[in-house]
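As noted in the main text, all predictions were made from sequence alone. Below is one such record, for Bifunctional folate synthesis protein.
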Amino acid sequence: MTGHPDRIELRGLRVRGNHGVFEFEKREGQDFVVDVVLHTSTARAAATDDIAQTIHYGELAEDVAAIIEGTTFDLIETLAEAIADHCLSLTDHVEVVVHKPSAPIARTFSDVSVTVERTRSTPAPAATGPGEPAVAYLSLGANLGDAAATLDEAVAALERHPRISVRARSSLYRTAPWGGVDQDDFLNLGVLVETTLPPAQLLAVCQGIEVACGRTRELRWGPRTLDIDLIAFTADGVEQVSDTPELTLPHPRAHERAFVLAPWAEIAPDTVVTTAEGPRPIAEALAAVADQAIDRV
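Prediction:
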């Protein structure tokens, strides 16, 4: 925190922009609503009654509108970061909320929003330096709507992200649903990506793509328009370990699931996976779950 006692707030700025994972979102556009809070001191402006001594909220509104109208991003996370970056040229502590009230979600909802808070002393974290991408394995699945098209769209969205590159993509696999819920079979695939994002931010990008594709989280192991799981993440040749409420790495149940292992083994056959008994070659782990129904499409 900067210690500034005062705030200038711009709330409910509605601007039409062309941001989203889907091509129709970029083509047709939609309204975005932005709230900006600038932590600053208004003492000099109050003492002098001079607009030159404060942040001009009219100019701020035009600057934010120009960012929304003049750029195209897949994710509102990226849009929020761009707005925050600009605001940090005006003060050293900002909060930005980007609302997407017309997000393409096949459920009744009131709002989707992303909030970022940034200071000049704590920039957005980066995982690795330039030219040192980490490697992650992602497992994707869908069983609602046109599942194959949704998976294609999701992989394309990952590839478009400026800090993610899809290095390998598996074939499609048809698998029986997991968890005992009565539902249609899933289509699954796996991708290896290179990224300069840290694991938590990569997961956030994946969740943003899920939301854009209409993902809801109402029933565990239930039907999914799109599911993207971060299975493993290796940086500087070292497999990363995480045990937080938001993210466990490596994925603790990956070795139990043929729909995760089969695509992974196809694109990275030399992988060693973590199991309850210790590290095992992925071919051995896959053989151990051979009783699970899975067919290459």
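Residues 122-130, 217-222 have pLDDT under 50 and may be disordered. The radius of gyration is 22 Å. These features were considered when defining construct boundaries for the mutagenesis experiments described in Section 2.9.
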